[in-house]
Amino acid sequence: MKTNQQQDVTDAVLERGLVNLWYPICPSNLVGHEPVSLQRLGRKMVFWRDQEGQVRALEDHCPHRGAPLSKGVVLGDRIQCGYHGVQVRCDGVVTSVPGSPGCKLEGSRAGLGFHVREQAGVIFLYNATTNIDTPPPLNLPEELTGDAYSSFICYTEWKGDYRYVLDNVMDPMHGTYLHKQSHSMAAGQTTANFRIRDTEHGFIFEKEGQRDVNFDWTEWADTGIHWMRLEIPYPKTGGPGGNFIIIGSYTPIAPNLAAVFHWRCRKVSGWQRDVWRFLYRNRLEARHWAVLEQDREILENMEPDANQYEHLYQHDMGIVRLRRHLRNLAKAELERSEKA
């Protein structure tokens, strides 16, 4: 019984998302100068831009009576609660209690503020459980930071646990079957042996003896943010830039809803960058959405407890490795919490 209880607690940690990590929250264009309330990582959060356009974030909960700050008024780097006028700064400090100046609440750090960054067309948030002054750096893969690459963000929300999305990406073999009609995944063997190869920040799960033919490998990495990388070989009709690179990162919204981020990247510069971006918008984007729709339809129609009735085989070694790794991270988080 104790083992089952421990497993339930560990699952609860993973279901809401591990703490002290960076997560993608939403595309940048979803947040403007008016407050926006979003459910992410087991919390309601409010996002807004200050007078300089910098994104700010707080827990969407006024320290006074718990009213949603998202229903208040933006005052630069703080929000004035619409219920009683209490002002909460982006670092969680209550700067003004107009109904009772000088009271104990005024000047206290009673709210929960979050550190946010904008990069690659997305707002990222550091998932701390307490207020911290300085977060660790946001370390993204080179495809999202280097000038040698050009990318498009693809954002969607899928019904279901975000961990099923992780499993799907850590399963290269499904490309041979589910996506076999795709212009970029029609080739390759229908059987394969796989191996796991460790990297500096994680591991690669790959087919043995086949590369640059189909969806042949997936990389998992932890650089203070969890992300996945894969490549799809492209015919010459797909334009310049070599293989098509996909970077994925996934954030729990609620137990049965996931925020799904895929950056579609090519290594191009100069005139080739312009050609690639034109081809993508006019010829390739619709095809890529069609492939994602195939994944979505499968995952959204899986039962929430489908992974309790699995019979795994050699093609699933990567999924097993990743699940075990995440469970170990969740157990370590629980141990730190108990010690604290």
TrEMBL record:
Superkingdom assignment: Bacteria
Pfam families from the UniProt entry: Rieske (PF00355), VanA_C (PF19112)
PROSITE patterns: RIESKE
Gene Ontology terms for molecular function: 2 iron, 2 sulfur cluster binding; dioxygenase activity; metal ion binding
Keywords: 2Fe-2S, Dioxygenase, Iron, Iron-sulfur, Metal-binding, Oxidoreductase
Domain Rieske: 22-125
SUPFAM superfamilies from the UniProt entry: Bet v1-like, ISP domain
Protein name: 3-phenylpropionate dioxygenase
